[in-house]
């Protein structure tokens, strides 16, 4: 207990769950980490997809297209902030306006995306470190997992108080990349521009070029993941909440546009060729700053912002999980607050899922990226279509203009989504689509399970049992399974006798000798109840007992099912459980999961015999 | 159920456990497989330990020494067969004559040895196959595991009926190796004898030579493992049992001596140099028979005898485990007969342990062999010392001569044991010694646990509880934890009311809103019992409840501990358990494993609410 308190902190009282509000400055740092961190890998993703030949021509146009898309999506979210001032994000918008189906698809996509954000950001952060210290490049997975563990623990401790501190590296990152871009504009490239001969371009068919360009575009769209974060967290802002959130959203959009385009422009200017041992951002920083302290600071801050982006997912995933748990689409324990008032189960689930992803993909950012962005664009699409429906219903001032903007955003997102699916399908997007389907059906199945349970447990549906113990008119049937005659079984027999006069002791005969011995002791002890011996030719203890019990149930059925009184044994130390046969637990499980009707209730009485504790 | 019946066979009745007796011919095949199979790897082990230079001089003398040792051990076991006609083997001899300490050390050594026999025989068998079909040499581990699985299933089915069939390959193996040796005597070696210059021998110090020779000797002693098998299985023979067993033992000794020495002689004659891709036996067979059908038959039969040796361990290990379980040194479930009248738990434990060994050592016979033989020689030593003590006590006719022979055997075994430890210590023998210690302390700890339990549960030690339910003079205290008011909890409250008038319902307040709602419903339903609301500022459900319960226990302590009546929920499908909070199970575990005194018994009543099954 003390060790866990040291690691996770002392438990917090429920009262202290006061919502702490954020200023715009802090909020920008908290919500923008995810989206800004993509600056460090989005450009690289475009270059890798294009290849050396095409990148000369197409890098800048692709970056510009992504900026247009950014503008449209921000316009649409600008509406959402006012329409859903209570937060809620894409799931709430989609479910309220488009119904359960689209809501759950959105939720599934978001779950996957949060998990991928963690995996991608961690591996990109580890790559940033390994670019600066090449000795570490064989230990990417280990670095990822250590930092993942650290961030999980931080989040299990609850990270509310740390929002202020986290703002510092975020702004430092913005500052240094800004500096990098400005300096970069005045730095002359060392190597001359790569000139492509006619033949080289002729070698590619138009179809190949189109495919590669679309692929590069969809890879670059990973820059846009994280925009939705502000919409889910409107309530965290100082009042007037939606207005402050809107200002922050626009500031975020401008900063992202500048940093992303700046880095892409520099990569193009310096003819950067991506390679697996050094990131594109690292190469640019080395050219602009030289291999000095400023370069190492850039790498360090890049790693920081990537790890902060992980943190954003750790805020989003458990909150979404708690919403789904409250609506009974996932197990209700995801809605429980842990000792430190964090949604611990969601945090743990996210850590485990991300851990698997990192190990499976060996922490390779470029292998994970094709899976990424797809989920986000599903949620962009559904939530913006939802907004169109919402605005058309509300009919506020200028509603047609607003709905048009959202509709445009939705259309652009949907087209991007189709491009991503088309161009990344064989790279892994198919996995994501399958996973979304699986999650969707899981949500539905769980929801059905809960609904059925609630209906059946409802008091209005009748079927309650009356119990009357040992009155003149009523003697419940009691059955006591006995294996040996020791203190535990004697306690059980005594309790059974106090419940009723109609008690039957039962032994299952597996070993003739032992049964004979037990019969002798039984006679000597002169119990005032019958002892039934059940033969078990196949040495099963469960089946003969259950058969006998069901016979008893059918005898005088108006008395209800027979009550089972069992002694169980609780050893002094937990490990000693393996020494004992757990007969009581086996009987109980067999009884409860055997075919049954729910009309009458079986009462199971356990008389534990607790050994004295050794310590 | 049906699939498992298909794989493992239909359950057998206890009655059919008639002991099937074996003729000498069948018994030799069953018991000699293990010891004869060592012919395929013992010579190779000697050659590898000696190296090319020394093998020229020392191979034959070492083989002769091992034959002397074989003679002494067989003499000693010849005594044991008459002295312990009920079988029992080394564990029984050591425990009865030398006490618990040596008995348990012997048992630990035998357990390890049985496991190693499985691993060594499987990997040697797989090597034999791979020598004939070099394509398979990268799949040794897979071959081992597939055959292990097959043999495990065979043994779980019970293999009594198959003893006759198994005799065929055993005798074929003896036949073909006999043929190989006889033909080999008349085959001229292709390569001339390796001549060692003075210098080459001078390069080695005398100490190195001594060490290597001793190491080769102890490696060769793996030929002797398996001799003990007959002594453990005397009861399986036709009467007069011990006489038939003695004849079989001597026959086995003669065959082993001939085959082992023959192969070693041929290896020396043909100047075989061991290599990792082809076994020594395979090389000899190729030289003598040529690369034809006879060669493939030899390899096939070698693999067969090795897999039969695995089977011997699968007979020995579970039987030893059942003996130890009956004497309460290991969990008692090892003494249970499975559906097919085999000691299933022992078989499964052996399979798992062997599986680990094979995977850890990549199925490399020569890596496993240094661990081997040590355990057997511990059991040879203790059981023969035990025999000396036994014979000195009995004072039969010629007892001094018999005791002298056993003593000589014990001394020789003990010296061999020391040589094995000395020469193989750093190769892995240290692991075996540590493992024996660990097993020994485990046996002791488990035995202590059982003894303590038996003493405390003994009826003579007093401390039984009387229970009186709902009489005029007596009202037990009953506590019912309630989370929501549904049919399940109502059943629990009704049952509690039938037990006593002193019932308290308890809710733990984690969420103020929900608690208020529950209070309203409670008032509306007009229960005739108090409802206690326990605040839980830290959202724990267990601690506030237990504190309240212990308070109740202390109120009117003469009434005993408060009875806990809980409703629990049994979903229609097993997987749905993850959807529910398992509060009843959590309370029960917390209650039973919290600090407690064993004087008074807590009664726990579970009122399961069983959902209708979906199917």
What do these coordinates show?
The structure is a homodimer. Chain A is mainly alpha-helical. Helix content of chain A is about 65%, strand content about 5%. Chain A has 21 helices and five strands. Chain A has a five-stranded parallel beta sheet with strand order 3-2-1-4-5, sandwiched between helices. The longest helix of chain A has about 60 residues. The mean pLDDT of chain A is about 85. At the A-B interface, helix 17, helix 18, helix 21 and strand 5 of A face helix 17, helix 18, helix 21 and strand 5 of B. Strand 5 of chain A pairs antiparallel with strand 5 of chain B.
Rg of chain A is 33 Å
The level of helicity of chain A is 55-70%
Helix-strand sequence of chain A = HHHHHHHHHHHHHHHHHEHEHEHEHE
Largest interface: A-B, 76 and 76 residues
Tell me, briefly, the overall form of chain A. elongated
Q: Largest sheet of chain A, described in full?
A: 5 strands, parallel
Number of helices of chain A: 21
Q: How would you name the oligomeric state of the polypeptide chains in this document?
A: homodimer
What is the count of β-strands of chain A? 5
The fraction of residues in strands of chain A falls at 5-15%
Low-pLDDT residue intervals, each spanning 5 or more residues of chain A: none
Q: pLDDT average of chain A, as an integer?
A: 85
Biggest sheet, spatial arrangement of strands of chain A: 3-2-1-4-5
- Class from helix and strand fractions of chain A: mainly alpha
Termini separation of chain A: 17 Å
Topology:
Two copies of one chain form a homodimer.
Chain A lengths: L1 H7 L15 H14 L1 H45 L5 H10 L1 H33 L7 H18 L5 H23 L12 H5 L3 H15 L8 H4 L8 H29 L10 H10 L3 H34 L17 H17 L4 H4 L5 H21 L4 H59 L20 E4 L5 H13 L3 E7 L2 H14 L5 E5 L6 H13 L8 E8 L12 H11 L10 E7 L5
Parallel strand pairs in A: 1-2, 1-4, 2-3, 4-5
């Amino acid at each position: 207990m003390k060790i866990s308190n040291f690691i996770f902190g002392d438990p917090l009282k429920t009262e202290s769950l006061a919502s702490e509000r954020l200023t715009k400055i802090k909020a920008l740092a908290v919500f923008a980490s995810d989206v800004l961190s993509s600056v460090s890998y989005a450009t690289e993703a475009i270059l890798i997809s294009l290849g050396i030949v095409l990148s000369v021509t197409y890098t800048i146009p692709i970056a510009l297209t992504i900026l247009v898309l950014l503008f449209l999506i921000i316009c649409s979210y600008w509406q959402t902030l006012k329409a859903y001032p209570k937060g809620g994000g894409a799931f709430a918008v989609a479910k309220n306006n488009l119904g359960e189906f689209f809501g759950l698809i959105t939720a599934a996509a978001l779950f996957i995306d949060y998990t991928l954000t963690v995996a991608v950001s961690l591996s990109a952060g580890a790559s940033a470190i390994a670019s600066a210290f090449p000795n570490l490049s064989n230990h990417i997975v280990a670095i990822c997992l250590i930092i993942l563990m650290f961030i999980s623990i931080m989040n299990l401790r609850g990270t509310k108080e740390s929002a202020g501190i986290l703002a510092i590296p975020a702004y430092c990152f913005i500052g240094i990349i800004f500096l990098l871009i400005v300096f970069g504009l005045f730095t002359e490239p060392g190597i001359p521009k790569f000139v492509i001969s006619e033949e080289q371009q002729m070698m590619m068919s138009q179809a190949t070029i189109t495919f590669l360009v679309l692929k590069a575009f969809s890879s670059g769209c990973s820059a846009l993941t994280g925009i939705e974060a502000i919409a889910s967290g409107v309530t965290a802002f100082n009042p007037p909440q939606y207005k402050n959130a809107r200002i922050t959203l626009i500031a975020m959009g401008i900063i992202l546009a500048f940093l992303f385009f700046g880095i892409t422009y520099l990569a193009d200017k310096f003819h950067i060729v991506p390679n697996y041992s050094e990131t594109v951002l690292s190469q640019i920083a080395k050219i602009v700053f030289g291999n000095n302290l400023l370069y190492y600071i850039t790498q360090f801050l890049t790693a920081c912002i990537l790890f902060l982006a992980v943190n954003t997912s750790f805020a989003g995933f458990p909150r979404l999980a708690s919403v789904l748990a409250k609506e009974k689409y996932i197990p209700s324990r995801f809605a429980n607050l842990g000792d430190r008032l964090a949604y611990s189960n969601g945090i743990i689930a996210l850590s485990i899922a991300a851990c698997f992803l990192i190990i499976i993909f060996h922490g390779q950012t470029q292998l994970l990226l094709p899976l990424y962005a797809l989920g986000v664009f599903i949620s962009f699409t559904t939530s913006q279509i939802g907004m169109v429906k919402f605005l058309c219903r509300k009919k506020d001032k200028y509603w047609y203009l607003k709905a048009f903007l959202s509709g445009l955003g939705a259309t652009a997102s949907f087209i991007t989504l189709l491009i991503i699916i088309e161009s990344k399908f064989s790279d892994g997007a198919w996995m994501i689509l399958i996973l979304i389907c699986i999650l969707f059906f899981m949500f539905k199945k769980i929801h059905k399970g809960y609904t059925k349970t609630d209906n059946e447990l409802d008091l209005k549906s009748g079927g309650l049992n009356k119990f009357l113990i040992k009155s003149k008119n009523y003697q419940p049937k009691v059955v006591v399974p006995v294996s040996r005659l020791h203190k535990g079984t004697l306690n059980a027999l005594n309790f059974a006798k106090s419940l009723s006069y109609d008690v039957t002791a039962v032994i299952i005969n597996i070993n003739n000798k032992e049964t004979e011995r037990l019969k002798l002791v039984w006679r000597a002890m002169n119990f005032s109840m019958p002892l039934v011996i059940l033969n078990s030719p196949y040495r099963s203890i469960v089946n003969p007992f259950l058969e006998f019990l069901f016979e008893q149930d059918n005898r005088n059925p108006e008395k209800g099912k027979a009550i089972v009184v069992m002694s169980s044994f609780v050893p002094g130390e937990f490990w000693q459980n393996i020494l004992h046969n757990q007969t009581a637990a086996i009987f109980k499980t067999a009884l409860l999961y055997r075919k049954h009707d729910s009309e009458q209730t079986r009462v199971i009485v356990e008389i534990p015999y607790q050994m004295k504790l050794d310590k």
